[in-house]
Amino acid sequence: MQADRVTLERLTGQETLARTSHLANIYRAAFSGPPWHEDERAAAAFTARLTADARRPGFAAVLARNDGEPVGFGTAWRTPRPFPTGRAYDLVRAELGDAVETLLVGAVEVDELAVSPHARGQGLAGGILDLLCGRTDPCWLLTAPHATDAIRLYERLGWRRLTGPRADIVVFLRSP
């Protein structure tokens, strides 16, 4: 993959919904192998979440293409006040306690980041995160403790790990 053939496009919620099939295909490719091993039910659940998430206030997505072929994406929105419950929010609160209110509320929350296996190692994830998060806002994301490649990526990009090594979930923060 050559960098001059890669484009990153910031999408609104409606533009994202119009590209749901592309994002679902990337999701399948990115998360079907180790360490995730997600199946078709997980991909269908992602599509359902995306349909709802794209309607959130402040939702944004970034689509990465190589020679016009979709190869990566990220989705994000601002974390509302009060800090939400459900999804993985309860795990985050269990790890960080009341610090979520000062560290994460109002920050850009990266919900999904996926790059097709054949497109990895080219800086796409970093480019997607930069465009999603901007330069002036705090930004946070989470991953699983067994996702060692993702953890190394975020550390290499300068994100600060907020949770300890024995945590059930790994929370990262990028401050401007």
TrEMBL record:
Domain N-acetyltransferase: 6-176
One MF term in the entry's GO annotations: acyltransferase activity
InterPro entries associated with the record: Acyl_CoA_acyltransferase (IPR016181), GNAT_dom (IPR000182)
Keyword Cell membrane part of the UniProt annotation: no
Root EC class: transferase
Keywords annotated in UniProt: Acyltransferase, Transferase
Protein EC: 2.3.-.-
Organism superkingdom: Bacteria
Keyword match tRNA-binding: no
Gene3D superfamilies documented for this protein: 3.40.630.30
Entry protein name: GNAT family N-acetyltransferase
Species the sequence originates in: Nonomuraea salmonea
